[in-house]
Amino acid sequence: MGNFKRRIKQYTKDCAVRIKSFMWECSYDYMVFKNFDLKHQPIKPQRIIEVSFFLPARNQILICCDGSSRGNPGAAGYGFVCRDELGGCIYAGATGLVIATNYIAELMAITGAAEWAIQNNKLDICINSDSKAAVSAYMSGRLPWFMQVRWKRIKEILNNIQLVHSLREVNFSADSMAKKGAGLVRGGKLIFNSKPSFIPDLESPEKIYYRFC
């Protein structure tokens, strides 16, 4: 067993020349490099960004949405959380999809959120998504062909729709709903008319959140 460990250690050391990325400045990384007798890599610079959450304008509904795929592609679903101008949760929903990628699930989350708003006569909405690619696709009109007609009808009915890219740190409630959606069968739904019990807290405009990058 000792010879086997030494062979692994030597093999790892011989291949260390192929390590090109940064290491984190943490005790775990230092311990790994020390145990394998490897030269330390440059430390990854880390920035801490303060992130804030904003409630919608007066008489507007904020819908935080997200998509999720287990496998990318894999079992997929989406979810969204609807908030009023005072911050109250007026609705939360999750929907199961077919096998899909994260990107498609995130696109479907925006469409599903907007269609919920129309069905409930909420015609002035702000949609938050932590997918920059999905928000960009809707704003530029470069959507997959099977979503273009649905989105055109949505825009014709809504009085006002804002699409905002928000960071994941202030979109965690929708992320929780999306993961629930990915666990549902195709077309399966979870519906809540208030904050779901499995979400401990909703995003608050009174808190500062932090993103490490």
Can you walk through the features of this model?
It is a single chain. The chain is of the alpha/beta class and about 210 residues long. It is built from six helices and eight strands; from the N terminus they run ααββββαβααβαββ. The strands form two sheets. The chain has a six-stranded mixed beta sheet with strand order 6-5-2-3-4-7. The protein is elongated, with a radius of gyration of 22 Å. The model has no long low-confidence stretch (mean pLDDT about 90).
What percent of residues adopt helix (DSSP H or I)?
25-40%
Radius of gyration: 22 Å
Structural class from helices and strands? alpha/beta
Instruction: Please tell me the overall pLDDT.
Output: 92
Q: Extract low-pLDDT stretches.
A: none
Report the end-to-end length measured between terminal Cα atoms. 40 Å
Number of strands: 8
Major beta sheet summary: 6 strands, mixed
Q: What is the beta-strand fraction?
A: 25-35%
Shape: elongated
Put simply, the count of helices is 6
The side-by-side strand order for the widest beta sheet comes to 6-5-2-3-4-7
SSE series? HHEEEEHEHHEHEE
